[in-house]
Each structure stands twice: as structure tokens, then as C-alpha cells.
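Work Package 3 (structural annotation) set out to generate three-dimensional models for the target panel prioritized at the project kickoff. During this period the team completed the workflow that converts sequence records into C-alpha cells, so that structures can be stored uniformly alongside our sequence database. As a representative example, we reproduce one entry of 308 residues exactly as it appears in the project archive.
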Amino acid sequence: MLRFASIRLLRAIITILAVVTFAFVVLRMSGDPAQVMLGPDVPQESVDAFRKAWGLDQPLWIQYLAYIKSIFSGDFGVSMRDKASAMQLVIDRIPATLQLTIPALFLKVVIGIPAGVYAALHRQSAVDRGVILAAIFGFTIPSFVMGLLLVLIFSITLGLLPSGGQDTWQHGILPTLTMSIGGIGILARFSRSAMIEVMGQPYIRTASAKGMAWQDVVWRHALPNAAVPIVTIVGFMVGSLIAGAVVVESIFSWPGIGRLLVVSVTNRDLAVVQCILLIIAATMVVSNLIVDLLYGWLDPRLRAQNAH
């Protein structure tokens, strides 16, 4: 198990370093921050002074080494736009993002998994067909379309909920629903497929033939074995929570990390963008690492494969 965890941890570190490097290079190739910050009519002397002040006049490899060194020393840079700590600006936006992502993840899990399991246990029934149709509807519609559709129905047509902002708890309902509907459909679909596959295994038929109660067969044999692919999907959803908030926060004017990322990219605020991308990458990598460890715990065969 130790070797299994060590391999996964090494892969996680390499992945984060690769994401940081890719983001660093792409951001500096996408445009000159000096031109965006100062405007097109500023004298060249001002542009040169700006680039020198922020170290943008140095060769790319020198900038990269300085950035990596500063990261390992705990310095994530200063915002060109706000002249404040880039990481602190991002941290200040985390609570707003968590107000959407945590309830959205909760809804995905408590609705999607039971719906998929129930549909699998009542295969070919009206409920099963309804779950399939609802799941297809949920995960095939892009989040920005879903958000606009919910605004059209509940804000413009019915006038029940606000269409944007963060003033009251009602303002969080539509963005939370927008973030959760697609995930509910995905989890329902995968939970149903996993349960159907498990319920067709010989050991399930054997347990039933021995006279074990149907509820015990489901809870003690089917669900634990179906949990492996479901845990993988949930882990992926946890890792992509912040990335998934980018579009939703922009649609609903929600002052979280996602909206800050859009504004920072527009302004070429390099340090802030790099901090957000680093947090997104770290979140995804850590969640996948935890899923890998859970995978090895749930399925001992993986530990045996990695032991050789």
C-alpha cells in the first residue's frame, strides 16, 4: 500500500508542476500585460518601465525560474491590477465559491446516486425510463445554457428568484441548481450502470440462492462493489468544482473565484490567474489522489498489481 501511495503522490506532484509550467508559458504568449493595463495610447517609455518593474523584460526562462523559486518560498506574486497579494485576493473569494460548490456537490450525491441505484433495481420500469431521460437531459445541456434557461423560467417568467448577485440566500439557488443538475444526471447514469453490472454477477445470484434477504444482498454485496466506479466519478466532480464555477459565476454575477478568473484573464493579471490555476490544478490532483487511494482500498487487486 505504501508503494501504491508513493507512486500516486509522485504523479500528483509531476502533474501540478506540468500545469504550472503550461499556464506560465501560455499566459505570457497570450498578450502583453503592459498594453492591457496601461492602454494603447500610453508612451512606449511607460510600457517599458511597467515591464521592467514587473520583470517582464527578462527572458522567459529567467521569469520561469524566478516564479518557481517564489512559489517554493511561499510567494505567489502581486496583482498588477490591485497591487495586493494575488493569493490573498483569491483566498478572499473562496468562501463565495464554496457557498455554491458545496451545496451543489451535496445535491449531486444525495439525488444522483440514490436515483441511479433505484432505477437499476427497478430496471425497465417507468421510474427507470424517467431517470434515464432526466439524466440525459441533465448532462447533455451545457451549464451556460442551463443557467440561462433557469433565469428565463424562474426570474423573468415567474419572478420567483433573483437572476444575479449575492445579497440573500435566494441569490444562490439558481447558480447552485445550475452547477448540480448536470452532475446529478452523470451520477444517476453511472450509478445505474454500475449497479446493473454488479447485480448480474454470479456472487449476487449465489447470495440470493442461499436465502439471503434482498435488502442484505443489495447493501452488503451490490452497493460496496458498485461503489468503486461511483467513487471515481464523485472524486472527479470534487476536483472540478472550482473549474466548473467559472461559467456559472459569470452568468449570475457571483463574486467567487470563477468570476475573478475571468476578470483577471481579461486584464492579463498574471499573478492572480496563475494562483487560481494552481489552486484548480491542486484541487483536481489531490482529489484524484484521494480517489486512487480509496480505489486501492476498495479493490485490493489494484494494490496487488502495484506491489509487483
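Residues 2-72 form one domain.
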